[in-house]
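Table S2 (text version). Query chain:
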Amino acid sequence: MTAQGRLSRIQYLSSFPIDSLAALIGSLICLSLSPIFIRLSELEIGPNATAFNRFWIAAVAFGLLNSWLNGGHQKQDAEPEAHKTPLGTETRLLIADGLLLAMGTVCWTWSLTQTSVANSSIIHNLIPIFAILGGWLAFGKLFDRRFIVGMFVAIAGVTLLEINELLSFRIGSQIVGDLAALVSAIFFGVHPLIAEQLRTKFNSVTIMTWSSTTSCILLLPVTVFGKEQLFPSSLTGWFSVIALAVVGQMLGIGLWTYCLKKISSGFASLVGLIIPVFSALEGWAILSEPITFLALVSFVVILVGMYMAISSRSAIQSPIESANS
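Corresponding structure-token output:
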């Protein structure tokens, strides 16, 4: 790379939206903690009931926060459009966002009962591919070669985390679970594309209020028909679902939605691949779970992919895309 090229890249990186990147990292840390609360919750209630409680608690909290913001206490993130009642296409997008989250959650949860955790995780982590493909097909988004290479390097790093389970893959009864994991990856890959479009019109709290409400409405009949216990019956159970709603949904998905105002959906989805790294470190720190040499190698590979992606011009919104932000 020439001196002029290096200077141009340094100037580009210095203009990177640090506040949005910080929000994205905070989001990923919160999302990596979600499995801990899910495990605690599922000691009492089923997976669908866990998701239902996560969404309805978040919907109530986001609704109260949204009412407070619209009452004249808007912060910098609140756009003037958030005062208006969503109509037409915007309403459909807001509802679709909630449907995607709910259906993606149901498919992923169900896949874990039909296939190995390793297979489900690896296939589910194909989210960035569908986010990038969807952005290209639906919105004509283009990603440079450095970003694409970084994406595949990061995906390879995540695959290394579960390489032992991957080598023991068995075709047959697991294929249905693998397909469910693939469908969940598609749903979660389209979600940030819709959220990215909505961020040009609404603040993140408004979007999360709609999506959380839609998700809990959809999951209620799924939980009831599945004959699962609807609510926790102990303080530990309630702590688990409340923590999941606050940490996983409000902070995890909420901060993720916030950062999409300045960071591209493809990049946000790609950086999400670092969640297994956070989860492994948390398992080591909290549960004393060992970290293998292969895991350490995979961490390095993932970070290399992250660096390649973050240093590409596809990482942030183009001036045209962010003109209305």
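Notes on Table S2: Residues 74-86, 318-325 have pLDDT under 50 and may be disordered. The chain is about 75% helix and 0% strand.
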